[in-house]
Protein: Citramalate synthase
Amino acid sequence: MSSKQVFLYDTTLRDGTQGEGFQLSGLDKLRIAKRLDEFGIDYIEGGWPGSNPKDIEFFREAKNLKLKHAKLAAFGSTRRADTPVEEDPQVRLLLEAETPVVTIFGKSWELQVTEVLRTTVEENQAMIRDTVAYLAKHDREVIYDAEHFFDGYKDSPAHALATLQAAAEGGAACLVLCDTNGGTLPHEVMEICGAVRKHLPDTPIGIHTHNDCELAVANAVASVKAGSTQIQGTINGYGERTGNCNLTSVIPILQLKMDIPVVPHLEQLRDLSYFVDDVSNNPHFARAAFVGRTAFAHKGGMHVNAVQKLARSYEHIVPGSVGNSQNILVSELSGQSNILIKAEELGIPLEKGSPEAGSILRRVKELENDGYSYEAAGGSLELLIRRELGTYRKPFDLTEYHTSFRQYRDGHPPVCEATVKLSVDGTPELTVAEGHGVVNALDLALRKALLPFYPEISNVSLADYKVRILDGHDATAAKTRVLIVSTDGESTWGTVGVSDNIIEASWLALVDGIDLFLQRKR
Amino acid sequence: MSSKQVFLYDTTLRDGTQGEGFQLSGLDKLRIAKRLDEFGIDYIEGGWPGSNPKDIEFFREAKNLKLKHAKLAAFGSTRRADTPVEEDPQVRLLLEAETPVVTIFGKSWELQVTEVLRTTVEENQAMIRDTVAYLAKHDREVIYDAEHFFDGYKDSPAHALATLQAAAEGGAACLVLCDTNGGTLPHEVMEICGAVRKHLPDTPIGIHTHNDCELAVANAVASVKAGSTQIQGTINGYGERTGNCNLTSVIPILQLKMDIPVVPHLEQLRDLSYFVDDVSNNPHFARAAFVGRTAFAHKGGMHVNAVQKLARSYEHIVPGSVGNSQNILVSELSGQSNILIKAEELGIPLEKGSPEAGSILRRVKELENDGYSYEAAGGSLELLIRRELGTYRKPFDLTEYHTSFRQYRDGHPPVCEATVKLSVDGTPELTVAEGHGVVNALDLALRKALLPFYPEISNVSLADYKVRILDGHDATAAKTRVLIVSTDGESTWGTVGVSDNIIEASWLALVDGIDLFLQRKR
Structure:
């Protein structure tokens, strides 16, 4: 690894979660960390132990992840002004995270030192030097994030360079220049990175950019041209305000266009991108470079014609090299390997190329073309596999269900009611329930109907309910995708339903949620 | 205008519509063209008259737009191989569009000439030279788009430069270097643009980039650094595959960061961005640079604190300079001026600062915070203004409505039914209807109830129905926004409804659609 020319430093779990609409539970963070490691990311920044107990918890759990390649990094700040580093509780928490890498940020901009930190330039440098040295003494690889470096440098090159010098003296393994406000232009990045390399030739530099000018990727590339050997960013560019540098774009640029190998399996890039979207329940950005649904879609008649004659005509790379595809319909199938892994988890040995695997893959592809997505709905995928393999037993037969919504205009609240008519082994049951909303009523009526037959479902409850409208392609109607998370208090599982009717889509996901629990209990 | 250092060339209406999910009707295109002109765009590419009758129609209608500043451009290709230019029907259509500017594209890449065009290098150059000269002779300002220029140059600089030379000899006003496949990196753009300027110093150059590497904006900026004086792009970066260069980002970079003035009212940038999203019914990209909803949102506790102390700490520009705002709730109000213009259209003189204007603006702000959006729902905005001014008369009183959805599992299709109970001037009416889906049933029952009182509504029908799920901020539930377009065969109007219940949101938009028609008829 030490022979790599450029190292990838992912901060999806820390700076990414500063973005609006990008929330991750502790479990989500562990799943993403595992995936980043498998993909070949070099550093994974897991969180800031000093800022909240959830991050402390994450680092405790993360020890069981057994990362194959990546080094886990805890993030924090320099010691407080006028406090000895060994007495700073935030710094202590960084050590207690027991990560091989600790990344600390410090102030580069004189304005920030005097106006925000309200201390002296000298004390600021001491804070940097002391904290880096203290962590290095405890055998940590210390990465120094120079916050506001470019703004600070433009204001006063001497001051900004002196703060880096302090970090280098403290023993920092890498000096990361941060464009914290995202306002710097690529030619400025190139020039300033060059100046830093000249001033501090013995310490590697890195880059941390933000997308406030839609230039985060360009700035990272410019920095590599000027000698940076570490790029910080996030998957799909999530992050505060307009987001961080999008690693999903930087990685193929480096590997395919600049001949700088950074990951072993670039063809898994698209799946990784979708995985992070689905885990965080964010819609996939169709126009995303390299991995987007339309990244290799050809609409103009002339282009389609030319692509048929010669793909290079309108494709800057081979789509498969990043796991994407020219033909959108085919590409909807996000990785056969995921399905094989899932089957293995179920204890079902499924071989690539076997007839069973073939039939499951065909079925998944059909359903994905209909708008299903299984990345965050492992429960429904498990049911599908069980059905295809014949290990599935139907827990009930539905006769019909009915929902009713009555809206008044005299101040009376609306009334949502659902009835469910079903039978279990020939015994009929008819139930009715009211709820907050039609779906809630339907959920309650279904449980009420099944409870006499399956008392164990009293432990199962709905943990999350999410709706997404899928845009209709061409002239077809828009579809609704409903994702549900169910829990029995110990484990959780996701299920999915798709229909042009939101009630039916919800029903399908609700039924799968209970059905999976019953299949597993058998 | 000729003193400008960099000219903006918008191709939202042509290259933008090559993007998936970005469709514009003829009316949409005229509305956007008018808005681009008011904003100060220099060139507006309206379409390709040779490719479809809709674009020919557009150019006919566009003559009535009376643009104040922008020049309209018709787009097309060079003459066919082995055909005299004056006999080429596609070139004739370009002249018949009667625009002051004609933009034609030609091949720069030898591979494309021989493999796609299947002609000789010499004939290709003649095609370029002849077509430019012919159009220039007919008093058109001719812009030459050199397709695949960067790929062609990397393959053979001599060949690529010779094609530009042919365009310059023909009398092209500007040579636009196109990164058609979007695969070129900024340092390559800088170097190649420099080489072109050196080779052809007497003809201005421009740049047309695509976002396949997330570098379209960076490439445009690099080109300006190397001497380009025209930037081609689209609003919000719409366009084929990953999209075109995003003018919404380039404009503030030039104006605020490179001291190159390009538009007179930069503070209207955010409204323009939302306008194009809403007209094309695309969701706003929250993380968009400069104009996005979260572009100046501060989530991290430390950042919020620092911003309070010193805004420059975490804001690279003053948000108001692009019409955006630090406080998201305040910024949801997209331009008071739009509302005043709307009132003026209604013949209601509403002065900025008057009590009526104040109460309307407050109401709009309230509703926008609730998830309403009026950019594409002028009908609902008109009703709101009428209500606030007291010129509104309620056409009916709703007592209640009811919807029912019954799903069978025996192959019987689902049954959707709605009942509506209302009164008009004290006369009660109760109706029931079945429909394809609950909303369709509700629409039919409502019309059935109103028809005896207002027979004129038989002319009104539903032209479009769109649903969007609005993500819940913080812990609030997700809301549903329904946009409806109604028509009476002559004109169309948009209305909007928002609720946490999709049926109620649809009802609100349906009622507004009929209500507006009745108000206008009175």
